[in-house]
Hints:
Order of helices and strands: HHHHHHHHHHHH
Strand content: under 5%
Structural class: mainly alpha
Helix content: over 70%
Pfam families: LrgB
Subcellular location: Membrane
Radius of gyration: 18 Å
Largest sheet: none
Transmembrane segments: 6-22, 29-51, 57-78, 90-112, 142-165, 201-222
Membrane topology: Multi-pass membrane protein
Main location: membrane
Shape: globular
Amino acid sequence: MISAAAYIVLTVLIYWTVKRVYRWKKLFVLSPLLIVPVVIICILAFGHISFDTYNEGGRWLTGMIGPATLALAVPLYKNFSMLKKHALEIVTAVAAGSGAGFLTALGIAHLFHLSKPLVAGLLLRSTTTPIAIAVSDRIGGISSVTAVIVLLTGLLGMSVGPVMIRKLHIRSEIAQGVMMGTSAHTAGTYKAFELSGLSGAISTICMILSAFITLLCMPLFVM
């Protein structure tokens, strides 16, 4: 029990430290989503600590993902009038983006003759990690492979998205949110909130819609 509590404290302390550094210098390479997992992996590897031992405490933090996700409802509530006003544009954009992403994944898989586990990971890359892991095994994927692909997609979107927004001079907060949430799920939403509260709220709803549309398309892959 003591070790479990120690790992919880260690994880929170690492995150808090990295978060402080990131607030001081907002560079992608200093992002907590990138640095914290790397630091923890290094500690486990060099300390010869098994993941199961670490997870005695880590699983309690994992269990808080659900309640933490519910907290995203707050900005949705605050920006509900704006969401309602632009509902049609948002749904249309997300449907187009998710559909294009799904077809692109199938095209890449066909072109390079990828194995089914890799294809499953590509198809689920823009959903959230919990959803991707839950669905992956059921469609012939490997949950660990899918999780890595989802993580890399989020990190890539989080790093490239803001650059594209600047280069393309995308000033609409709604467009920014749609772009980040549809393509880069939770990581993109995290970055969207740094752009503005409205962008974050739009990104949140787009992340949910994108996951829903992707799941609706899954029977096409299974067939």
